[in-house]
Amino acid sequence: MGLNTAPSPVSKEIARKSRPDGPAEPGQPLAEPAKEAWWYPFKKALPVYLFILPGVILFLVWTVYPLVNMFVMSFFQWNLVKPSIFLGFDNYARAFGDEIFWQALRNTIFYAVISVPGQLILGLAVALLVNQKLPFRAFFRTMFYLPVVSSWLVVSLIFMYLYNSQAGLLNYLLKDILHIIPSYQAWLQNPVTALFAICALGIWKGVGWTMVIFLAGLQSVPPTLYESAAMDGANTWRRFWHITLPLIRPTIVFATVMLSIGAFNVFIQVYVMTGGGPQHSTETLMTYMYSEAFKFLDLGYGAALSWIFAIGIFIISILEIRFLRRPVEY
Amino acid sequence: MQFRPRILLTTASLPNRWRKNFRRTEIAVIDRRNPFLVAAIYIILLFWTVISVVPLLYMVSTAFKPNQYVFEFPPKFIPDNPTTANFEKAWTSENFGLYFTNSLVVSVATTILILVLSSMMAFAFARYKFPGRTTLFYAILGTMMVPGLVLLIPQFVLAKNLGLLNSLHGLVIAYSANSAVNIFFLRGAFEEIPNDLQDAAAIDGAGIWSTFWRIMLPLVKPSLAAMAIFSFMGAWDEFTWALTSLSDEKLRTLPVALRLFQQSHGTQWGLVFAASLIAVVPVIIVFLVFQRYFIQGVSAGAVKG
Amino acid sequence: MKTRLTLSSFSSVFRHGRLSLALLAVLCASLVLAACGDNTATTAPAPTTAAATTAAAATTAAQATTAAAATTAAATTAATTAAATTAATATTAAAATTAASSDAPALGDPNLKGTVTFWHTYSADSKEQDTLKNVVLPGFAKLYPNVKVDAQQIPDTDFRQKLLTGISGDILPDVARLDIQYVPEFADMGALAKLDDMPGFAAIKADAYPGPLSTNFWKGSYYGLPLDTNTKVIMYNKALLDAAGLTAPPKNMDEFIAAAKKLTVPGKQYGFVPSGTGAWSILPFFWSLGGNVTDENITKASGYLNSADSVAALQQLVDLKKAGVMPDAIFGGGISTMEGLATGQYAMIDDGPWMNSIAASQFPNFTLNYAPMPAGKGGSIGIVGGEDLVMFAKSKDSPAAWAFSRYMLSKDVQLAMGKIGQLPAIKSVATSPELASLPYYSTFLTQLQSTKARLPHPAWTKIETVLNDTFEAAFRGDKDVKTLLDAAAPKVDALLAGTK
Fold this sequence. Notes:
The complex is a heterotrimer of chains A (330), B (305) and C (500).
Chain A: H1 9-17, H2 40-44, H3 46-73, E1 76-77, E2 85-86, H4 90-96, H5 99-130, H6 137-149, H7 152-162, H8 169-177, H9 194-219, H10 223-231, H11 236-247, H12 249-264, H13 268-273, H14 285-294, H15 299-324
Helix pairs in contact in A: 4-15, 5-9, 5-12, 5-14, 6-9, 9-12, 12-15, 14-15
Chain B: H1 6-9, H2 16-19, H3 35-63, H4 85-93, H5 96-127, H6 133-143, H7 152-161, H8 168-176, H9 180-191, H10 195-203, H11 208-216, H12 221-237, H13 240-245, H14 254-258, E1 262-263, E2 266-267, H15 269-289, H16 291-299
Antiparallel strand pairs in B: 1-2
Chain C: H1 7-16, H2 18-36, H3 47-92, H4 94-102, E1 114-120, H5 127-143, E2 147-153, H6 159-169, E3 175-179, H7 183-188, H8 201-207, H9 210-214, E4 217-218, E5 221-222, E6 225-230, E7 233-236, H10 238-243, H11 253-262, E8 270-273, H12 279-288, H13 308-322, H14 337-342, E9 346-351, H15 354-362, E10 369-371, E11 382-391, H16 398-408, H17 411-419, H18 427-430, H19 433-436, H20 441-449, E12 451-453, H21 460-476, H22 481-497
Parallel strand pairs in C: 1-2, 1-3, 8-9, 11-12
Antiparallel strand pairs in C: 3-11, 4-5, 6-11, 7-9, 7-10
Helix pairs in contact in C: 4-8, 5-17, 12-13, 13-21, 21-22
């Protein structure tokens, strides 16, 4: 289970499964002289290659080639209408001197910093409660998961409606029922609250997913550990802190990495709810890239931005894995 | 959020006189005999249920409201004069019947293609050794870390050159290509199968295809079901690529069509939510029916570090 | 079921450094693909070979852009003068009309075959759509039984972007109903077909009002037909005005401001609600109060956008917001102006003739009342809106597309659309008694006599962004009006000059 036990489960797996003759070509005699030729393994694996060919072609054409082409594009002024002009590193230089790019970056990081821990904490809390053997827990689990299965576009529209600055349900609730706010707020149109409003939607929609992930993690913790801990007189808090949390650490890392990738990908809710406004206060990397590319037809600049994001997300994922994983002893 | 989540997790923040009772509990589950604790848990669970469900219910309620009551004050959950006019308008004059069909066709085709391609890849990765396997495997794995939207621009250019813009099969191909997660998931399922079965098939002289199709595939049916649901939902909900690549009105999928009602002179909320319900209800039904596979699919992979 | 996905796999990627190896491998493979693959729509050289030649290309392109920049200014002046000359020809030579129409073939040709894809922004759930589907298209089918028209509604919020992606992806319609403000931009891109020499164009040109016609003119040619024109006027809820003791709508700006304040009940009812804080919403009031964006030749904004008059004009509007006359909904996200007016929460709004049709469809029990823009220091100035019908240069079926375009400008269609709020830009139709009898018509027709247009300039979209941001910041009270306008003027200057 350890993340840094060497060799990794994957490579162990590979070692265990791989047999010298393999079932790929069962009739082949083992001691054939041609085996010495460098191409022999390739020839032997030909049926497997043919077998995976469709999938590999799709992968190469639709993922790898665009990745490379995006790199090429990022050095051009590229708009598909006029011939492309080579710019060298101009697109990258422009990005780093671009005020709105930095604001989009800050907003995206802000979104990640608010929404990822929000989903993690609430998701874990809900998972711990639903994990108790109480009546109706299946019902609660189902209810909590409903936001996850509703499409992003629909929930964005719903929240737009709830956030309405005059007759929205949220304003009604906070002002007329609970009297928390003095006057109606234009949640999505106020630069101060707009990003929080979008984070709230992100958390609301993500808690169900995080809960299910944590439920799976919690169920993998052996109950015997708790029993012996209880015998040692550890209270519930200590048991949570010293047993549950370390043991579900892989799950936490997994959820964190996945949620961060999702957070950096935030697009639909911003595009639909605010379009990046007011005054770019909710502009995220993805909405900025999208509008540069498809509203101003600057595909080369958009490609440069995309590359910067891709590398950024990659580095952040690595850092998260490095920092969050630690030896687990039990 | 109104509450401090820490309170929910443990008894740590309860008053000491309550906490004493827990010191001697035998196992990790909370004491179900303590009515306060049980009540507290239920209150919190109900609170979060309300938060989760109320926005969705509010959508349902608004979908049945005539236009002039959409912003009535104070907001009403049960409309005074409910109407199905919004649904009729959405389905017929706004063509949501057609968009529904488009979404269905695209999602079903995507699901089939993903299942076929990724189970084949996963099977080969799990059960065969061939030169380049590790390299290819890690290459696919690496793309999981690059979120799909990053590649939107070059994929648009590519789709243009391949003539895949503005067509439903273009959507299917774009959606099917994003199946790294499925490959890993299914690869795990194939690895669970004992070696004996494969050896027996090899002795019978079965080739890779018949081993896969007749012996292995039936054994991973539950995983395939989970994958099918996720692929279907992913395709059903996808918005950005459909928005960017489609221009023909007759090809719109449901999420793109929902944008129709957001116009600069105002949004017709009753109509929007009637159409949204048309888009969301099938998915919720699929979820409720196949919940078991859902949970399995989501949590697969999260446990093993 | 347990799988080996995820973290172990992720972490081993980094540990073994295989990822770099893998990526290197696929990189090489796909570079080969890239080399023989695509570059742009045009058959430009592949990137690898291009690298050597691009240095030269870049320099020539740079020269080209500076040259273009120089001509832009000239072209805009040309546009305005050309509009003036067309006006002159149109008005003076009545004989020209008959002369021109003689070369125009009559509408209707059963032998013409083809398909026309037509993108429009006629509002969903309104009479505009109904009329198009039930009157206009069947009428065309009678005249051209073998031409199929595929009319598609695109939401106006996405329309410009949809056209841009269409241009870059080669998925364009044949004909589009394009907002007048975008015609110079798309014409400048070379996306639109020149219409000067099309059979029957001269007749339409001769019968069109010069203002709407001039919006189709770019660098010496016409790229569209004036499909409809519009402007915005004041619309009010009569019951609320009566309740406040106002017997007539305000005539001048002083009365208007006083009435707006009088009609405001804090937190409950708002006196005047513009449709937003963007240029389209604010400019008519800004102009009427004496403000200006640029000089007459559209060459610079400094000294105009930030003049004392402009500052005073914007300040008066911002003061209305501060006084609570306008709700926060002007920043969006609230109740739409039509909804607020119909439900008695807003007393006065400003909007265009299309609202007639939308109101009739969505609020059948509410009667709209119209009043002209109140006159201020700058007069009673409306903003010219409207749509042009453009044909795309890459249209696969241009005879059919042109037949359809001409049909859309024909008297029957213009009348049918005029009745539901699409004001015709064709003189012979606009003056017809059938339209003059409509309740809203005269207010708009009068207002159209005194209007200003948004800047006919290819950089308008970007200039508009600057104005929108500036106005929004002013209404929010972020900074004082003078500071904001002082900051905006040089930005607009730069955009007008064609530099980034």
